[in-house]
Amino acid sequence: MLAAIQLQVKAALDYDKLLDKLRGSEGEKNIRDKQNALITSLNLKLSGVSKKRTRLYEDFAEGILDEEEYTFAKKSYDEQFADLTRRLDEAVQRRSKFNEAMSVDNKWITLMKSVSTATQLSQELVDESVEMVKIHEDGAVELVMKYGDIYALTIQSIKEVQEAM
After folding, report:
1. 29 and 15 in one domain?
2. Which pLDDT belongs to residue 71?
3. Which of 103, 113, 146, 164 could form a disulfide with 27 if both were Cys (CB 3.0 to 4.6 A apart)?
4. Same domain, 94 and 54
5. Which pLDDT belongs to residue 55?
6. Are 112 and 43 within one domain?
7. Nearest by Cα to 16 from 162, 160, 161, 154
8. Domain that holds residue 33
9. Same domain (yes/no): 54, 70
10. DSSP readout, 86-155?
11. Residue 121 shares a structural domain with residue 154
12. Of 23-32, 70-79, 119-128, where does mean pLDDT reach its minimum?
């Protein structure tokens, strides 16, 4: 178990050095610019559909559209609005996760640094760094480390930045 924790610590320290080099790089800037442009674009489209829906009701109220035309168009705009809202939520979430992974306060790296000096296995070390221990029927032991999701996001974000350079 100590060896597994020490491997995580080594990986975290290596990734921390790499992140230091990638932060502020052209690749990171390109990704942030693309994320922000997508969010801005989706917000503009959402605003446009919202205005169309509002105008649609006004046209119906003024008698320009009959009920069938209004119902058909409203359904179409509602579907567009729902799709754009979903896409916007996903884009904002992707940006947030990217920011979390690229942050100097990356929770996984911070945790691994805090346990980096451990030379002996202790209950405190396990409690601090291991979320769950799974023992499989074949006797294999699997450690689920804390902040494993951020670890995966960090690796993914590093690859994205490297590819964007």
Report:
1. no
2. 95
3. 164
4. yes
5. 95
6. no
7. 154
8. 25-103
9. yes
10. HHHHHHHHHHHHHHHHHSTT-HHHHHHHHTTT--S--HHHHHHHEEEEEE-TTS-EEEEETTHHHHHHHH
11. yes
12. 119-128
Question: Count of H helices and E strands in the chain?
Answer: 6, 2
What is the count of structural domains for the chain? 2
If one counts every other C-beta atom within 10 angstroms of the C-beta of residue 101, the result is: 25
Helices 107-114 & 2-22, crossing angle to 10 degrees?
130
Tokens representing 28 are: 């990171």
Share of residues in the chain with pLDDT > 70 (%): 100
Q: Which of 50, 78, 103 is the last residue of a domain?
A: 103
- Give the domain-ending residue among 103, 126, 152: 103
Write out pLDDT tens, residues 20-53: 999 999 999 999 999 999 999 999 999 999 999 9
- Composition of the chain by helix, strand, coil, percent to 5: 75, 5, 20
Over the stretch 142-163, which tens digit does the pLDDT of each residue have?
Answer: 888 888 899 999 999 999 999 9
Residue type, 83: D
Indicate whether 37 and 60 sit together in one domain. yes
Q: Which two tokens stand for residue 34?
A: 């693309």
Report the chain's mean pLDDT, rounded to a whole number: 93
Whether residues 123 and 133 share a domain: the answer is yes
